[in-house]
Amino acid sequence: MKKLLLPVEGGHYPQELLDFVSTLQPMAPLLLTAAIVPETDYVSMAGLRDLPSSAPHSCFGDEERMVKYNRKRLEQFCEERGIKLAVHEDREDFALPCLRRESRYADLMLLNSAHFFEDLDKDQPNAWMKEMLHRSECPVLLMPDKATLPGELILAYDGSAASVFAIRQFAYLFPEFCRVQATLVYIHNEFDAKIPEEDAVRELCGLHYKKFRVLKLKMRPADFYHTWIGMMSNPWLVTGSFGRSALSETFSRSFSTELIREHKVPVFVAHK
Fold first, then answer.
1. I need a surface site. Which of 2, 102, 163, 174 has the fewest CB within 10 A?
2. Helix H or strand E segment including 154
3. Is the previous residue joined to 52 through a cis bond, with omega within 30 degrees of 0?
4. Count of domains observed in the chain
5. Which segments of 104-229 does DSSP mark as H helices, in order?
6. What is the pLDDT of residues 35-64, one digit of tens each?
7. Same domain, 263 and 186
8. pTM of the model
9. Distance (Å, rounded) from C-alpha 93 to C-alpha 38?
């Protein structure tokens, strides 16, 4: 059984993510933990002073009514589909520390790549999403509105521990998806560059991914989306820590950010 963490911001109802959860439930039992957090001002938080200063404080009147209404909708949705549900409501604390604390006890966090704190900043990945990707203590799956199950997997690899960790974590969490075509992608600006620890990563991936291949590319990561990946069938990207390593400089920052901004391809992000 997997424990999925679903942030619910104030009175927002995450219909698209719930629809995706309902497609996962028949494959393997899961516990959905809905963490209801406030829509509030983060500017005063230590370490988050670079967030937009326009962030408003919560309007508790209308929001409280919507929270109660949507909680009932959520409970009914899960009951009708046989999904085990836990609702954690902490609206006294700031949202991001609350979600980080919840992520410590979850297997996976689900976020909508288009709508996470969109009332504060619609330009994704916004500061709140980046902060959550940095600080989550469990893997994060960013899903577009019209999410589909994976037809192919892109395993982003640069030889770092973070990239290998993400590849391994995805296999542990979603063994049911490891039967689709999985492509380990290594991007370098020189054609003759050797793939780091190639034998070792081939051995690991070959155990977990039934249809596995390696692809070495010489191209700008930004071009990757508009060429090769655009021809794939329902691809998902599996990548290491967002914005921290060499992977983020050459692959995640430009490539993952582009995918998140396009709101088309699910992105699985994991770091230690």
1. 2
2. strand 152-156
3. no
4. 2
5. 127-135, 161-173, 198-208, 221-226
6. 887 765 443 344 444 544 444 444 455 667
7. yes
8. 0.81
9. 8
